[in-house]
Amino acid sequence: FSLKLEYDLLEKQSALSPYSVRNILERFNVPSSKAFMELVSDFFGVMSAELYKYENGKLISLEKLGSGIKVDEKDPLIQEALELNRSFYIPPKDILRKTMNEELNFIALVVAESYAGKFLLAIKDMDFLNINEEALSYITILLEYYGDSIAFETSGFSCTKSCDKEFELQAYRMQLLKERFGIDSFTVVFEYPPERREEVVKLKSMVKGLDRVCINENKVFVLLPITPKEGVERFIERIRKDMDFLKVKDIKPIKEFCDVY
Asked: 247: buried, middle or exposed (CB in 10 Å: 19+, 13-18, 0-12)?
């Protein structure tokens, strides 16, 4: 299936679905293979799987879920998935038919290429309701996010001159999500009177889990990941009800913000 997804469509469907990119990534606080596997288990009902990194023509096992699943990089399906960066799954009706005649080694393969390299998640068993394009699309985004979080540590990436590592990491992740999937993230630049700094610090407790706040002498940068322009406007309205002294100086997509600030 195609990995170039319309994020807005996915999020609109979330009213009828248990999935939400934002909700899932809010839980992904530690960029580790164990944390990744816990999330695919909790959100998508994956019961048995194994995460691999593809390096120098070899698949290196990083983490198992359940009993795991051993795969052979010479398997034609594995080779096709890796060469074409192509994820796929076996429809549930075909799984039932095939298991009557043969043992299935895997029911889905998810491939993601990040700045940390190429990763493959081989799934042997998962909730049948989640064996569909939508669920595997979310898993693909999460897998790339995992790889990019690892890559940040050695990237030398810098968005601003004054913000901490947590803000920089989130800016790095959001730039990559925009480049790969067209997912929007914006940064709001507020100005404030220096004598109100103590009040401005409270802003950190008023934002949501993925959002990041950076405060300097007279400006506040608020990074709003995975947020369309309409969501940015609603955020500003909500914040200014409690902090009407904040003045909006700028609103920029994440890449433009990093280029300017």
From this structure: exposed
